[in-house]
């Protein structure tokens, strides 16, 4: 008997039907994106199928049909969520997915785009510790793009993931915060932790807010914290690397990345102490993101 799951969507619900039980990994990935197990998902949006030769196939049941071959149940859950996020983009229209962490600093939405290990999750969780809302981990939707209107972020309610051990410079309060919210599961790498903030510490799925700034985190070992305006070309290049928008051509994506880089202030944050970096971000946000740009 298949395992069936129902997720909140921008409009209506999404459904997953799976030949393997993915409830345990979903609980790791999903914080405030409402979902539940259901008896049947006859009109599934995503299917997870066992393969005769081993492994699992994740299939998007829409046009264009997409498939993803994976080896482990954990990977199949992540792949299914990626496909639901793609469907959410389609429902919203002129939106793209940005590979970025995020936080709401006094209600101002900041995104942390960048590559893995840059410190995106650590910064967002440090801000949550200081009383701000975690926007979600690793993925968010941004838009509407290309129409000249203000750009919003749509938050997805995904739990934070971070690498262990936590740097001692993050501070004892932060280390305790992470340990108290760390999710345990068999088979997890000891170098990786899923962190589930309390409901009041995290924005729910679908919350929408104007995107106030793009903060590019750069970990360093030289000491201190430095915030500086990012160049237009650097923000453009990063957006093109970290955007995912299969419904746009490369030329269209370049155009919307240019519009976003022009509309939203961008900064580079170099840091070795994430607690000091979070305090610097608070000061920047409370200046209306004008402190460093005159």
- The fraction of residues in strands falls at 25-35%
Tally of contiguous helical segments:
7
Q: Kindly provide the name of the CATH class of the largest domain.
A: Alpha Beta
Shape: globular
What can you see in these coordinates?
- The chain is an alpha+beta fold and 294 residues long.
- The chain has two domains: 3-92, no CATH class; 96-286, 3-Layer(aba) Sandwich (Rossmann fold).
- Helix content is 29%, strand content 32%.
- It has seven helices and 18 strands.
- The chain has helices spanning 23-29, 73-92, 120-129, 172-181, 232-242, 250-263, 274-286, and strands at 3-8, 13-18, 35-38, 46-50, 56-60, 66-70, 96-105, 108-113, 133-136, 139-143, 152-154, 160-163, 182-183, 192-195, 208-219, 225-229, 243-244, 266-271.
- It has a six-stranded mixed sheet, covered by helices on one side.
- The radius of gyration is 19 Å and the shape is globular.
Give descriptors for this structure.
single chain, 294 residues, alpha+beta, Rossmann fold, 5-stranded mixed barrel, 7 helices, 18 strands, 32% strand, globular
Q: Could you provide a short overview of the structure?
A:
It is built from seven helices and 18 strands. It is of the alpha+beta class.
Layout of secondary structure:
Blueprint (H helix, E strand, L loop, with lengths): L2 E6 L4 E6 L4 H7 L5 E4 L7 E5 L5 E5 L5 E5 L2 H20 L3 E10 L2 E6 L6 H10 L3 E4 L2 E5 L8 E3 L5 E4 L8 H10 E2 L8 E4 L12 E12 L5 E5 L2 H11 E2 L5 H14 L2 E6 L2 H13 L8
Parallel strand pairs: 2-4, 8-15, 15-18
Antiparallel strand pairs: 1-2, 1-3, 4-5, 5-6, 7-8, 7-9, 7-10, 7-17, 10-11, 11-15, 12-14, 13-14, 16-18
């Amino acid at each position: 008997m298949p395992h069936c799951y129902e997720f909140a969507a921008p409009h209506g619900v999404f459904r997953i039907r799976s030949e393997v039980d993915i409830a345990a990994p979903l609980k790791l990935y999903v914080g405030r994106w409402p979902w539940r197990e259901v008896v049947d998902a006859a009109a599934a949006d995503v299917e997870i199928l066992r393969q005769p030769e081993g492994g699992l196939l994740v299939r998007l049941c829409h046009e264009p049909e997409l498939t993803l071959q994976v080896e482990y149940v954990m990977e199949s859950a992540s792949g299914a969520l990626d496909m639901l996020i793609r469907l959410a983009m389609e429902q919203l229209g002129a939106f793209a997915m940005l590979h970025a962490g995020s936080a709401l600093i006094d209600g101002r939405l900041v995104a942390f785009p960048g590559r893995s290990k840059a410190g995106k999750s650590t910064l967002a969780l440090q801000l949550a510790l200081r009383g701000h809302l975690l926007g979600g981990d690793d993925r968010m939707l941004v838009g509407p793009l290309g129409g000249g209107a203000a750009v919003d972020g749509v938050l997805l309610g995904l739990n934070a993931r971070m690498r262990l051990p936590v740097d001692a410079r993050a501070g004892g309060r932060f280390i305790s915060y992470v340990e108290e919210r760390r999710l345990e599961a068999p088979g997890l790498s000891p170098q990786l932790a899923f962190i589930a903030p309390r409901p009041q510490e995290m924005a729910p799925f679908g919350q929408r807010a104007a995107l106030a700034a793009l903060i590019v985190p750069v970990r360093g070992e030289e000491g201190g914290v430095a915030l500086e305006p990012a160049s237009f070309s650097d923000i453009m290049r990063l957006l093109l690397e970290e955007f995912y928008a299969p419904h746009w051509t490369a030329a269209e994506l370049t155009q919307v990345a240019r519009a976003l880089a022009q509309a939203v202030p961008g900064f580079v944050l170099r840091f070795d102490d994430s607690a000091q970096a979070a305090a610097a971000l608070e000061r920047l946000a409370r200046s209306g993101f004008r402190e460093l740009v005159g």
